[in-house]
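Q: My collaborator sent me two sequences in one message, no labels, and asked for predicted structures for both. Can we handle them in order? The first one she listed is below.
A: Yes, handling them in the order given. First sequence, followed by its structure tokens:
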Amino acid sequence: MPTPHKCRLCGVPLTRTFVDLGMSPLCESYVPAERLDEPEVFYPLNVRLCEACLLVQLPAYVPGEQIFTDGYAYFSSYSDSWVAHAKRYADAMIERLNLTSGHLVTEVASNDGYLLQHFQAAGIPVLGVEPAANVAEAARARGIRTEVQYLGAATGQQIAASHGRADLVAANNVFAHVPDIRDFAAGLRALVKDDGMVTLEFPHLLRLIERRQYDTIYHEHFSYLSLLTSSRALATAGLRVTDVEELTTHGGSLRVYARPDEAAGEPGERVKAVLAAEEAAGLHTVEGHDGFAAAVLKIKSDLLGFLLTAASEGRSVAGYGAPGKGNTLLNHCGIRSDLLAYTVDRSPVKQGWFLPGTHIPIYAPERLAETRPDYILVLPWNLREEISQQLAYVRSWGGRLVFPIPKLEVI
């Protein structure tokens, strides 16, 4: 028997499966045409539940350095709604913390500057910390000071020594992406002033389960966090959660506000309310996590049934978007170009490449109007409203949109 993996938060052996999605390639490892005939590496997507601290987690089958490489293909600025979300956050934090030119805002996993640009435009000094060099370069081209680093306790101290500690440290959609969550939390503590604030955004495990969002499980997402488990992780570094907001982004996320212990005070009412909702849903017990695997199987069978029927009727199906989550869905369901002819994406970085594992080609969005498919499978279902508006023109030829999650819908 293989030695069980150990919990990244408390060190207890992981023996309980939350959901097993089989084998899948790295979700952002898009394939160029010249490598289509070469083998690809597939890794397990077997998500475990720690029976001691309740952290739902994917063992680090792949080191983070292998995922967030110089060729990393995710640029935040290609989603209009995400950039707008970032601006609302910046405006709110400037007001909440009375931020001025005498303060510093540091963002970890700052990507291409999609968020810090809004603070910089308001005259507030900013610093980005981004591990993928090619993405950091895009931020620097916008004039946003960016360090190419993985955050941990040691790098956090180095960055703070060079640039000063920040009044606000933002970390959006990164806490779930770090293999060593304790070292990362220590890095956050190193970056923030003793009276400063840290905010984190991450998909909420409660919503993932409730809305069957299993395609948000991939190798980049090492942890699937509740408020309970994220609070426990932050506490290891002397950070205490003081407030929380529930957001609609990524199918339902939390924005957690934390302060160093010495400045934190008591948690607010919203913290108690979210913890109570998690407890009511069973997330504060081991058994409360059961049943998700059956819900996943239903999504797979419904989507495959739909595509097989469409193929037998001679209907054409194309995809919209090439997000990481789409690759989990397509690989888990065994969908290839015989059932999904191609997909399109607004990011020129992905156009002309092929999806990992499935080798479905990625084109520019104009391809849809040229080929007029009967159905368009929307892979980034979390941007439903934005994409429905972008694709309003498909009605002109009677095309219909298909959303696979939380349940199959054809509209």
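Q: And the one she listed second?
A: Here it is, processed independently of the first:
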Amino acid sequence: MQIKIPSLLHEVLGERQSPGGLAIVALVSAALAVLWLPAIGDLAELALWRRVLAGLLLLDIAAGAAANLTAGTNEFYARRPAHRWGFIAVHVHLPALAALLALPLMPYALVWGFTIGAAIVVNLLNGHALQRLVAGGFLCIGLTALPLLALEGLGMVASALFLFKVVYAFGVDHQRGQADG
């Protein structure tokens, strides 16, 4: 059984989604929102609008990390190569998050630059047997480098999830049935 997704949400969930896929995306999003809410609430010195926008960016990262692994989202972007490039281009979440939460911009800009560069390479490998392996390699390098940037708490987790979301969950065509060779 597949559920038809409203056109407003096609970029996030695809045109059709399984009930299980929707449930997992919702559960992951809700769980991460609950886990992150106290950290955002602790930033009382920041204007409410900044905390709300940062929370929405974090929610988008969390939801996307799960949704990009679903068959519905994968299929939507597999049939629309131009949309894949647009997805990569609009993902300025980490620098925006740093600005909203008054965090040092440079570490987040470095993670963002690495992530976008890696996503471009992975996207160029679409249909190649090594796509999944290259994406996994970039993910390993990026995750290993994160502690070197002295990111803390929420920033570290958001950066790691962003890297996973864009490079691996989105970047790889998971339904193509590639051999890792």
